[in-house]
Write a structure and sequence with these properties.
The complex is a heterodimer of chains A (281) and B (309).
Chain A lengths: L1 H35 L3 H4 L16 H9 L2 H32 L3 H13 L4 H14 L7 H6 L1 H18 L2 H9 L4 H12 L1 H17 L2 H6 L8 H8 L1 E2 L2 E2 L1 H31 L5
Antiparallel strand pairs in A: 1-2
Chain B lengths: L1 H4 L10 H4 L2 H31 L16 H8 L1 H32 L6 H13 L2 H11 L6 H8 L15 H30 L2 H9 L4 H29 L3 H6 L11 H11 L3 H9 L2 H19 L1
Helix pairs in contact in B: 3-14, 5-9, 5-11, 6-9, 9-11, 11-15, 13-14
The chains are: A mainly alpha (281), B mainly alpha (309).
């Protein structure tokens, strides 16, 4: 009997712990959802219980977001930025990752570490000189400045990720192709690249999410509303004067956050494998 | 079908042989990535160092060299030391809190149970969602009038409406808020890192320790912890670097306020260098991050080297 009590106490403790973590992690998102669909009269009445709808839910905030603000424009900007940065990243990081994986000398390894370390150089150290460089190039206040700058962190990260992947790919496949008359470049394009489609897909997803998550460069380089990416637009442009339109802000944040959250969850393990870079053997 | 039997007649470029040498081939493939990074990370880094030694402002873009004058002026400003202290409190406070939460979370998630996948997906959310969007959700939760946290405290009888704190209006509470948000953002990362580390510990090592009489704590702290230390170190390095240099939470939540109580290095550099246009002083403020980053980098390099031996 006492064993049963102890056991159920332990079980209860365990699930209370799980519940604590789930509420801690997910409550702000629950709060976004509730706020996004609440009527203003419900939202700004402190007598109401805030956790649920006291008046019927409404789509007004979302309608307003799409019709009266630049929200669709920001979505489009983010899409364009994401696509361009992904293209640049793939064109540079796939060959770099492959080359770093196949270099047998010490120098190759040093290069790999060098590229990875540049990922750790923070935007807040680079934004001043970069803003001058962007002004020189005539890209100030344009989303194309972000297309230029975002690869500075996606290339190091993705090269490192791909290097790990290519290292795991048996070199014998390429050697066989070379023996059969393939050039080195042919072996890379025709053998290694097709075999690395899953890794390349991961890189695409990560480049996209990294561009969506970025805030500092966007804040520094882009000030016109119609050039902003979604994250910056929602967090800085829906506030008029001192008035926060919480319904619209939360609706916008929710719509922007959902795709990133899903993508991240699907590819999380690869992300962790990427940054820990084989610290676990 | 005779085509197949014909000898190879594809035009071989003159550069073919050069390109087919392994060293050249590898260098050509890696060059675009290296060039990109050198031009847009390496060059700006050098430029930042030069700016900090010059009198450059956006109104007067001069390259005049002034030596360490900017740094001297910054060090004479008492608010700068507040900023420096805030940055350390923010970084280490949130990393410590995140690490503790991460350790407990990982401990719970280690056990299989129904719905573990969904629980994990929900717990990952804070790390997955763009920090700027999460920060404005928190800002709404810390609202001076409509704060859901205060509502709950009042409704449960812990506080009266008059006692309800103004989270972002009080210097200490505002600092607590940014620490909490950042810890909240990083604890899922810590959980995942812990889990990745623990699941990589071979079961036979743990079994062997158990057979040799090691109890729960001994297994945890003398077998598992040393084995997951490397992966924890990497996770912590990331956390420290990205927190120490962050400005988005502060920018969106408190604007460094109230009265500079939450101003951190990244934010101060932004305010001086971008908003006020004093590029030279802004660059100098930002460069105070460099020593911490260098320590982290050296630590990481040593760590990578040790792993290989």
């Amino acid at each position: 009997m006492s064993r049963f009590v102890a056991r159920s106490a332990r079980e209860t403790g365990f699930f209370l712990g799980i519940a604590f973590f789930v509420i801690l992690a997910a409550f702000p998102f629950y709060w976004m959802v509730i706020t996004a669909f609440k009527q203003n009269s419900d939202l700004y009445n402190i007598a109401n219980t805030p956790f649920w709808f006291n008046e019927p839910p409404t789509l007004d905030h979302i309608k307003y977001l799409f019709s009266q603000t630049l929200f669709t424009r920001w979505l489009l900007n983010s899409l364009i930025i994401g696509l361009c940065v992904t293209a640049i990243t793939l064109l540079t990081a796939v060959p770099a990752g492959y080359s770093l994986a196949r270099m047998t000398s010490r120098r190759g390894e040093a290069l790999g570490i060098f590229i990875f370390l540049t990922y750790l150089v923070p935007p807040t150290l680079l934004f001043l000189p970069l803003s001058r460089i962007i002004a020189e190039l005539g890209l100030q206040n344009s989303m194309w400045s972000l297309v230029l700058v975002y690869p500075t962190f996606t290339i190091p990260f993705c090269s490192w990720l791909l290097m790990g992947f290519f290292k795991a790919l048996p070199v014998e496949i390429e050697e066989a192709a070379i023996v059969d008359g393939c050039s080195l470049f042919g072996a890379f394009i025709k053998m290694a690249v097709p075999l690395s489609v899953p890794a390349i897909l991961t890189v695409v997803i990560f480049t996209f999410t990294l561009t969506l998550q970025e805030f500092v460069y966007a804040l520094t380089f882009v000030s016109s509303s119609d050039q902003k990416p979604i994250t910056l637009g929602v967090s800085t442009d829906l506030i008029r004067g001192d008035v926060f339109f919480w319904g619209e802000i939360m609706a916008g944040a929710l719509i922007a956050a959902i795709p990133v959250a899903i993508a991240y969850n699907l590819f999380l393990d690869r992300f962790i494998a990427g940054i820990t870079g084989g610290a676990v053997k | 079908m005779a085509v197949i039997a014909e000898p190879v007649a594809k035009p071989v470029s003159r550069f073919h042989f050069i390109f087919d040498r392994r060293g050249v081939f590898e260098a050509v493939l890696v060059a675009p990535a290296i060039l990109y990074v050198l031009l847009l990370v390496g060059l700006p880094l050098l430029l930042a160092i030069y700016y900090s030694l010059s009198a450059y402002t956006i109104y007067n873009p001069t390259w005049k060299f002034v030596g360490l004058a900017n740094f001297e002026q910054i060090l004479q400003d008492p608010t700068f030391f507040d900023t420096l202290r805030n940055t350390f409190v923010f970084t280490f406070g949130s990393q410590l809190l995140g690490l503790v939460l991460g350790k407990f979370g990982a401990f719970l998630l280690l056990r299989p149970f129904r719905g573990r996948k969904i629980v994990r997906a929900l717990i990952i959310l804070p790390f997955a969602v763009p920090v700027a969007l999460a920060t404005i959700a928190w800002q709404w939760m810390f609202d001076s009038l409509y704060s859901v946290i205060n509502w709950t405290l009042i409704a449960s009888g812990i506080l009266t409406r008059e006692q309800a704190p103004n989270w972002l209006g009080n210097p200490h509470l505002a600092m607590l808020c940014i620490v909490i948000i950042n810890a909240w953002r990083f604890f899922p990362f810590a959980i995942v890192i812990f889990l990745a580390g623990i699941t990589a510990v071979p079961q036979d090592v743990i079994d062997a320790a158990t057979v040799d009489g090691a109890g729960f704590w001994r297994r945890n702290y003398q077998i598992i912890l040393p084995m997951i230390l490397p992966i924890m170190a990497i996770g912590l390095i990331f956390g420290i670097v990205f927190t120490f240099t962050d400005l988005s939470i502060v920018f969106l939540l408190t604007m460094g306020g109230p009265g500079g109580a939450t101003s951190v290095l990244g934010f101060a550099g932004f305010q001086t260098g971008i908003v006020s246009g004093d590029v030279a002083h802004g660059a100098a403020i930002s460069l105070f991050m460099l020593p911490v980053l260098l320590v982290v980098v050296v630590f990481m390099l040593r760590f990578i080297r040790r792993r290989e031996i």
